[in-house]
Amino acid sequence: AIQMTQSPSSLSASVGDRVTITCRASQDIRNDLGWFQQKPGKAPMLLIYSASILQSGVPSRFSGGGSGTDFTLTISSLQPEDFATYYCLQDHNYLALTFGGGTKVEIK
Amino acid sequence: EVQLVESGGGLVQPGGSRRLSCAASGFTFSRYWMHWVRQAPGKGLVWVARLKPDGTGTDYADSVKGRFTISRDNAKNTLSLQMNSLRAEDTAVYYCARGIYGHSGIDYWGQGTLVTVS
Questions:
Q1: pLDDT, tens digit, 9 for 90 and up, residues B42-51
Q2: What is the b/e burial string over B42-61, where b = at least 16 CB atoms within 10 angstroms of the residue's CB?
Q3: DSSP E strands: which ranges in chain A?
Q4: How many CB pairs below 8 Å do chains A and B form together?
Q5: How many CB atoms lie under 10 A from the CB of residue A3?
């Protein structure tokens, strides 16, 4: 199974900060990666798919990059509503999708 | 508007069974792969199973293979998850999720239903 290692597991940031979250795959997954945002008690919401394609309706301050084994999710200017937990998901091995462990973004 | 509404969660004893359902609306259900994903209390997301649009192909996580069965009724726009031989470690919120059309990822999620094995 493909392992997804997400870092950091948590971070503290202020409104307006630029934030970058990293996901590393245990093998080459090309660009078969998505990013999700989850707020407490809520379902996850898709932000990015195919590593860099912004889902419809998602603010442009979110961007994704990378290919192969190393990927990033960047929030260019953190907003109050962005404090949440973020997960990556590889769908390269579509027989067994795997999520990263999550990154909790907290208010500094 | 895409809507996915899960039901069927509750308290079940170890070794018992439970059937979850997901009612889909707002899209052509029969054209999409569908998935189940779970999240144990305070933990991360774990993919459980997926099902081909016509219901003929399934894939499962190793942790549930042989115990869980994913199925669908395209006439009723309903996805199901039959869970047998339940264990304490199956305790989680179970989410129904839609596959991205023409892609192996996931886009829309339901609100989830909690299954407690105790």
A1: 999 999 999 9
A2: eeebbbbbbbebeeeeebbb
A3: 4-7, 10-13, 19-25, 33-38, 45-49, 53-54, 62-67, 70-75, 85-90, 98-99, 103-107
A4: 61
A5: 12
What integer is the mean pLDDT of A56-72?
98
Contact B36, B95 (CB under 8 A): yes
Binary contact (A36, B112; C-beta < 8 A): no
**A30 to chain B: which residues are within 8 Å by CB?**
none
Is residue B104 less than 8 Å (CB to CB) from chain A?
yes
Average pLDDT for A27-38: 97
Q: pLDDT band at residue B103, thresholds of 50, 70 and 90?
A: confident
Chain B residue numbers with beta carbons less than 8 Å from the beta carbon of A102 are 44-45
Sequence-ordered list of residues with C-beta below 8 angstroms from that of B29, at least 6 positions apart, any chain: B72, B74, B77
